[in-house]
Model the fold of this input.
Amino acid sequence: MTEVSVDSAAETGGCPIAYPSLESVACPYPIFAEQLEQGLQEPEGDGPYLVSRHETITHVLKHPEIFSSTTDLNAEAQPGWEASVFSSDPPDHTVKREIAHRTLKPGRLKAYGPMIEEIIEGLIDDFIDDGEVEFVGQFANLMSSEVMFRLLDISREEAGWVAGVTFEGIGARFLPHSMQLQQEADGARLNEFMLDVVRRRMENLGDDTISELIRGHRERTGEDDIDYLAVEASVFLLGGVLTTAHLTGTAMRLLLAHPDQMAAVRADYSLIPNMLEEAMRFESPLQFMPRVTLEDTELEGVSIPAKSELILVYAAANRDEKQFPQADRFDIRRDGVRRHFGFGLGTHFCLGAPLARLEGKVAYESLFNRIDNIRLADPEDDGGYINSAFNRGPATLRLKFDRVVG
Ligand code: HEM
Done:
């Protein structure tokens, strides 16, 4: 793990500054500023290189033939993940991605619209009479998990527990040992569950995402590979639940902290998509991604040997002043905000981005239509962040509101 030296303790709020680590959760931005200033950080021992600058990360993501996704950091994260679309390289990746993309194409997405709206309106119905809501637990998490459950055709009764778990993926390596053990247990439980779902689904294909994955794999190889399919289905489920919930929760948190921008976006719904992108940039739900070098190469004038692990700190690059002037300012009207790495870039660009964007848009339109004067239930308590260096999002967000009348 790379130690980042920050001159002033006041700048970091006095928190420890190893990155990535759980300790950096409370105050990552001064650490990112330091990383951006210093540039590429070489590892101590066998740790990863830290890459933070926007320009350098763009270069890395545009050269998958050198910077591979088949990294041990991914393989360590969940058993079998090395086979997934997420962790493979072209040409294997190209085929897997085409199959995975089938259920997320624009035509399908259009059809999901009414389903998403129905879920969101139902969730608002459930709390609107109370005048208050714990926005993360009663809305954001339930929304994103319900959408993924419907796509995969699995029920909340059997899979609801997944929505409550922080799957760390590659972040697991940077957790304390006891949490690593918990991650392994959760990963094994998810894998067992998915093996069972895929086994049953093979007997009875439908038009859900898991059935599409099974069909695509049969077309490609002529057989059923249950272990691979369970992993791919898990990537979908995990890819879409916590991330989208965090985007939704983070956007609310930021709007509450910027009442003028809350008023502006309420008055003009056409600002909602850019507001969501700015929230993604400002507090990226996935903070970093790994790569490994397939050959000797160079970044920022530093020689990097083959087989080196890299951590691409997307959340730091999203605060790079060279790309985003006044990067520490939340600005829902920011030009060029889509250059953020919240969804990655290039060959592995998030397949679920259009779905996450749609969920966020419908969520905020519906919320603004029905509740007003949204405020923290306790002005002193913004709920804090979840305990994870890899995922970033509000732990809880207790709100009060008035009902929109008329
Ligand atoms: C706000 C919500 C989301 C965020 C922040 C997010 C973030 C990301 C990022 C950063 C990547 C790129 C990984 C890399 O660079 O190696 C990615 C890939 C991926 N995401 Fe998302 N994601 C979100 C929503 C979703 C949803 C809703 C789904 C599923 C429906 C999904 C499925 C995937 C898949 C399958 C990949 C792998 C693509 C590939 O490797 O070719 N994501 N996501």
Summary: The first helix runs from residue 28 to 38. The pocket of protoporphyrin IX containing FE is lined by residues 69, 85-86, 97, 100, 104, 235-236, 239-240, 243-244, 247, 285-286, 289, 342-344, 348, 350-352, 355-356 (CB under 6 Å). The radius of gyration is 21 Å. The chain has 15 helices and eleven strands.
